[in-house]
Amino acid sequence: MELNNIQRVYLIGIGGIGMSGLARYFCQLGCIVCGYDKTPTDLTDSLHNEGIQITFEDKASCIPMSFNEPCDGTLIIYTPAIPKDSEILNFFLNKGFVLFKRSQVLGIISDSKYTLAVAGTHGKTTTSSLIAHILKDSGTDCSAFLGGISSNYQTNVLFGKNDIVVVEADEFDRSFLTLHPDIAVITSMDADHLDIYGDHSQLTESFTMFASQIKPGGTLIRKQGLPLTEGHTYSIYDKADSIAFNIRIENGDFYFDFRNSETIIKDIKLGIAGTHNIENAVAAIEVCLRVGVNADAVKSALESFRGVKRRFEYIVKTPQHIFIDDYAHHPEELKAAISSVKKLYPDKKLTTIFQPHLYTRTRDFADGFAEALDISDVLLMLDIYPARELPIQGVDAELILSKMKMWNKRKCGKQEAIEIVENEKPELLLTVGAGDIDQLVQPLKQVLENVS
């Protein structure tokens, strides 16, 4: 596929965070971009406002006439999350189109560039966004494909004038094996996506394959202790090549010092909260120093970093109420988010609203979810968000609740959760989950702002 020849692009599943990034990329290149997704969202609204035509009906009759026959200059991209019985998907298959996965297209785009790829079962979106922001803010510049909406730039795609590209490398469906980076970061390899991999060893093997695909002379930066091929290490702990130390909270902000074998940066103020985000920042600093950003520019950029939508995002921050929203959907992510909130506000009672994501993940990690959620003071549990999955007998939200030690916990629907917050007016509220729990953010914000 020659990217320079592409004139028309159709994306099946255009509303996904990765797919929407490609839609914006090709739109910026001047291509005619169209697509299908199941339901309208804020993201699809934004794409529509940018001139991208989207249908929400899975009907072949909704496909523009210009995509009716295969021809040079036409590119069809699909996400593996699309059901195999999709009418639009099968229209293109039956017509003889060559379909590309999102990850394949990303691999082609990045292949001729100096690629900085960030992988990991968690931490990759924030880390890749940190790297991109440091490069942009310092004047080094880059393009970037991010797995979330950057709060600094209000988009998930950045366009630069050089050949550096920052890519979030997704392990789902082994997508990241299409990438051949110059510098690769691996933040974490906790068991996840076991519906795809079967067991943790298969996941680890896939990350090892990703690490082996670094270009000759390239660099692997990995968290200390990950069982991978030899490479640079980073961690917030002792005895690592790159570390954060002197970590502290001052007036609600996180500060730390950074050190590697060549550079020390003192009194870094991180523009976002969370101990886990300091760990992400250490990886980002190491990458950017290696690309040639000077220490002062790194420090300045970290202070001005505003995070990623739904990654430890402050929704309400008043003397009466604190409301934070986070994408956490794995036990380790939940533990990091909840623990960070408790460290920041040790004297406040924490109410957590959690929506489990996927039946398989709930089944595989019910004990871990229970342990992480028990750190909260009050829990409101929503039903499982199924995404691409069908129900599994005996697997539901009550499975997690039954394993928890906390007494102040209850199952509720979304509307009921809003009513409970309105009645109880929690001083510290955290919403967590990767499904459609984000639909609660604005209603809950309005409730808390109205009772302030």
TrEMBL record:
GO cellular component terms, semicolon-separated: cytoplasm
GO biological process: cell division; cell wall organization; peptidoglycan biosynthetic process; regulation of cell shape
Keywords: ATP-binding, Cell cycle, Cell division, Cell shape, Cell wall biogenesis/degradation, Cytoplasm, Ligase, Nucleotide-binding, Peptidoglycan synthesis
Domain Mur ligase central, first and last residues per copy: 118-287
MF-aspect GO terms: ATP binding; UDP-N-acetylmuramate-L-alanine ligase activity
Catalytic reactions on record: UDP-N-acetyl-alpha-D-muramate + L-alanine + ATP = UDP-N-acetyl-alpha-D-muramoyl-L-alanine + ADP + phosphate + H(+)
Record Pfam families: Mur_ligase, Mur_ligase_C, Mur_ligase_M
Source superkingdom: Bacteria
Main localization (coarse): cytoplasm
Residues given in the record as ATP binding sites: 120-126
InterPro entries from the UniProt entry: Mur-like_cat_sf, Mur_ligase_C, Mur_ligase_C_dom_sf, Mur_ligase_cen, Mur_ligase_N, MurCDEF_pg_biosynth, UDP-N-AcMur_Ala_ligase_MurC
Record SUPFAM superfamilies: MurCD N-terminal domain (SSF51984), MurD-like peptide ligases, catalytic domain (SSF53623), MurD-like peptide ligases, peptide-binding domain (SSF53244)
Pathway info: Cell wall biogenesis; peptidoglycan biosynthesis
Chain ranges of the Mur ligase N-terminal catalytic domain: 9-114
HAMAP family: MurC
Family: Belongs to the MurCDEF family.
Name of the protein: UDP-N-acetylmuramate--L-alanine ligase
Gene: murC
